[in-house]
Amino acid sequence: MSSLKRMLVTRIDRYARAVADETATRMTQQLTAHLDEIVRSEMKELARMLRQQGDAADEVAETFGRTLTRLSSEIESLGAALRDLQAGRADAQPSAHP
């Protein structure tokens, strides 16, 4: 191979490698930017979902609290009614000592 041909091949090879490196760098940068955008979008969606779950959990806790309060009130009323019934039975039973 002549020295001129070898010099041209060497320069073309260097140029091709430089273009390939530059192309790879640009593609990597574009891919990284695209992945960053996807991750940001997914994080926003995840944050929204977590807020909704938090809101739903708050609603469940509030409903559960109201239900417990109502049940507690009903149990107290039932206990009072049972005490009244027991007191009425004690008054209605004839005394064992005349």
Number of helices: 1
Helix content: over 70%
Q: What is the ordering of alpha helices and beta strands?
A: H
The radius of gyration is 42 Å
Q: Cα distance, first to last residue?
A: 140 Å
Shape: rod-shaped
Low-confidence segments, given as residue ranges, are none
Derived structural class? mainly alpha
**Largest sheet geometry:** none
* Mean pLDDT reading: 89
How many distinct beta strands?
Answer: 0
**What is the strand content?**
under 5%
Q: How does this structure look, described?
A:
By secondary structure, the chain is mainly α. It has one helix and no strands. The protein has one helix at residues 3-92. The longest helix has 90 residues, at 3-92. It is rod-shaped and about 135 Å long. The mean pLDDT is 89.
Key descriptive features of the protein:
98 residues; rod-shaped; mainly alpha
Compact overview of the structure:
The protein is 92% helix and 0% strand. It is mainly α.
Task: Itemize the secondary structure elements and their pairings.
Elements: H1 3-92
